[in-house]
């Protein structure tokens, strides 16, 4: 497995471990017999779009969208022209309230990824129409290792943890250089109980500026 950037150095041993080889065998079978999202070539887009050395912030999701045309390897993101999922609508509402940007028309967050935001799901694949169907197959081991590797960075990073699943990763973030921002999940079921009004985007940039790091351009308009 090759990402073709700095992640290869940090993950080369991980890709040789038994759990990952078992996961690969599972995925070969799943992709050949089921409809799986995202496309196989998009599974590692979060790492491909945001090199290890460029990570300024991490947003943790759960697993990919299970509906056709939505998942493309970046958590919460959808490709150009795809209708915005409810969670992403709420993220954009918070962005608009926090920084005053006009509401984005596109749900493609690849600009954020290129700005240094690692848009990482805990589980990187899913069966069509079956949320959570690839949990417990090995992805969580890999993505927790990725969080641990980011935690080791010498440069400060902001970890944005939305929802209980994301908050389970909090014990992995032990480096005092980093900042953790927490809130409820942005889904309609939980967003009104602690997601809105937390100013994640402006707080991230304030922290980066305080540490001499160029802030993230969150504007998608």
Please indicate the percent range of residues in DSSP E strands (runs of 2 or more).
5-15%
Low-confidence stretches: none
For the record, give the distance between the C-alpha atoms at the N and C termini, rounded to a whole number: 35 Å
Q: Approximately how much helix is present in the residues?
A: 25-40%
Q: Would you tell me the structural class of the helices and strands?
A: alpha/beta
> Can you summarize the main beta sheet?
4 strands, parallel
> What's the number of helices?
8
**Tally of strands:** 6
The sequence of SSEs as H and E is: HHEHEHHEEHEHEH
Question: Would you write up a description of this structure?
Answer:
It is a single chain. With 221 residues, this protein is α/β, with parallel strands linked by helices. It contains eight helices and six strands. A four-stranded parallel beta sheet has the order 3-2-5-6. The chain has a two-stranded antiparallel ribbon with strand order 1-4. The model has no long low-confidence stretch (mean pLDDT 96).
């Amino acid at each position: 497995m090759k990402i073709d950037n700095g992640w290869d150095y940090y993950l080369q041993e991980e890709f040789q471990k038994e759990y990952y080889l078992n996961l690969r065998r599972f995925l070969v079978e799943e992709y050949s017999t089921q409809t799986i999202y995202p496309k196989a070539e998009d599974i590692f887009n979060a790492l491909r779009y945001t090199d290890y050395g460029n990570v300024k912030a991490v947003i943790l999701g759960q697993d990919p969208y299970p509906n056709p045309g939505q998942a493309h390897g970046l958590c919460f993101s959808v490709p150009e022209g795809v209708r915005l999922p409810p969670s992403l609508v709420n993220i954009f509402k918070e962005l608009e309230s926090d920084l005053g940007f006009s509401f984005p028309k596109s749900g493609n967050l690849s600009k954020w990824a290129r700005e240094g935001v690692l848009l990482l799901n805990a589980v990187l694949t899913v069966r069509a129409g079956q949320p959570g169907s690839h949990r417990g197959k090995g992805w969580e081991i890999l993505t927790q290792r990725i969080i641990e590797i980011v935690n080791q960075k010498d440069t400060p990073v902001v970890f944005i943890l939305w929802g209980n699943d994301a908050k389970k990763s909090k014990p992995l973030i032990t480096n005092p250089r980093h900042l953790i921002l927490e809130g409820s999940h942005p889904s309609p079921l939980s967003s009104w109980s602690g997601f809105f009004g937390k100013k994640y985007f402006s707080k991230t940039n304030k922290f980066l500026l305080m540490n001499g790091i160029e802030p993230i351009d969150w504007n998608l308009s």
